[in-house]
Design a protein that fits this description.
The chain is 33% helix and 28% strand. By secondary structure, it is α+β, with helices and mostly antiparallel strands.
Length: 349
Amino acid sequence: MYPRITAILAIALAVAGLQIPPASAAISEWHDGQVVFRGEPAELFGPFALFRTDEAAGRRVPLRALDGAAAVRFANELAATPGASLVAELRGRVLSVQNGKLVPVDLSNRPAPEVLVVFYCSQSVASSQTMVVNFGRTFERLRAVYGSRIELLLCGVQTDAAAHQTFALSTWNPGLVTDYRAQSSMPSLMRHAPTDDIRAVALSRTGVELAVSQLRSLAELRRFIDQVTDLLYLLAPDSPATWADRLQYLNTTRLAAYAHAAAGPQLIGSPLRPDALRRKGVTDIEAQIEVGADGRATAVTLAPGCGVPETLRATISDGLRRGIAFSPAIDNGRPVAGTYQFRYEVPPA
């Protein structure tokens, strides 16, 4: 959802214009509700604002910690100077294990993963193989659930090209592998590499550090896996845990973006659960939803002929009315009632 929201804001900013000074691409001072720090907006990440800083770790700030002016400033700067995808550095410089060989991977048609897990490892460090093999199995399970939102990359440290290749093949790494000779051409990736250890780092699509583990033990690896799993959950558009932060941010920034224009309601999330819908024979849902100026759904009318069994139409309508969340329609900087055309196809198991 967030890439779409960023695009919407960018268009709105270009058309309507924010009533604040022009965006700055430089690092500047921000406040996260507790301390002042220096950073540059990098991206929206579920319920967080990510900042690039002078430190490799960057900074993750809950959207609720940005007051109104800071939220508008963040949206303005982000729309004016969107961060480059980390994947741009990887194109033409990564490989994958196929039939016991390392072969080049074309990333040009792949979406940038929202979470890139990088293992900075070496064949010369005894625990490296254990850590990579154990996480590889977890990665395959996470990939089955979250698809291209997550990617795994093996990056060589304290090694050479031949040993790096041997290590990747011996672990049957299910993700990507750097071309060791090209690692110097990937500064955003290598700024997180350790100098005297091995580590796993979860990076955002713009290269902001989200989680890190020194990989001293399997217990540390398990904690890292828990952190990555939590991050993926928070990225899910329909995760209720993120709705309050996202709603506060959008309600503020959309009022500024549409100060001299109009926009319909913006969907935050729905209560629909695909596994439950599949069990009940629902294939797709199409509805007209009336949304009040407070963002609450006031009425839901299912379209005739959509894939909801007749016996469930009232239940689905009532569930949507009670559980769906919106940022309201905007008319010249003022929240107003509006109508939303809702469409949902139940995905396969």
